[in-house]
Amino acid sequence: MLNKIWGGFFFVSFAAALLRWVRGESEVWQQMVAAIFDMAKTGFEISIGLTGVMCLWLGIMEIGQRGGAVELLARAFRPLLRRLFRGVPADHPAMGAMVMNMGANMLGLDNAATPLGLKAMNELQQLNRDGDAAGGSRTASDAQILFLVLNTSAVTLIPSTIFVYRAQLGALDPTDIFVPILVATFCSTMAGLLITAAVQRIKLTDPVVLSYLGGLTALVAAIVVYFSSLERAQMEAQSAVISNFSIFGLIIAILGLAAIKGVPLYEAFVDGAKEGFGVAIGIIPYLVAMLVAIGVLRASGTLDYLLDGVRLVVGGVGLDTRWVEGLPTAIMRPLSGGGARGLMLETMETHGADSFAGRLVSIMQGSTETTFYVLAVYFGAVGIERTRHALPCGLVADAVGIVAAISVCYLFFG
Question: How many domains does the chain divide into?
Answer without folding.
Answer: 1
